[in-house]
């Protein structure tokens, strides 16, 4: 169900040290750094993210992603959310900057959280990318 999620950290340097250490004990490591965020996991897939929140209130809205079975479900998720009045953050598309085959859409839920549906096995699709 949950594909990945992230938290906002008030002291990013301290959080990096903490999570590098405690997740390392569990066999997890840094898998990706993207802007002001670091993703931890295994085998190239970041499942847990920390983000520099020095300029934001800790406890602010977070990001999490739900696994979708295919690109059609990603699109249906997006259409359903927008149909309910959710703010569109990113329409469904390929995100090659994350990894090949990453197809996702992002909306803001009623509480302001950045909610994503993602499918990791997409190929090139007409009109996306």
Automatic annotation (TrEMBL):
Q: Check the record and name the CDD domains matching this protein.
A: VOC_like
Give the matching InterPro entries.
Answer: Glyas_Bleomycin-R_OHBP_Dase (IPR029068), Glyas_Fos-R_dOase_dom (IPR004360), VOC_core (IPR037523)
Protein origin, superkingdom: Bacteria
Q: One Pfam match, by short name?
A: Glyoxalase
Q: Give me the segments passing through the membrane.
A: none
**Gene3D superfamilies per record:** 2,3-Dihydroxybiphenyl 1,2-Dioxygenase, domain 1
Identify the residues that the record assigns to the VOC domain, covering every copy: 1-120
> Per its record, how is this protein called by name?
VOC family protein
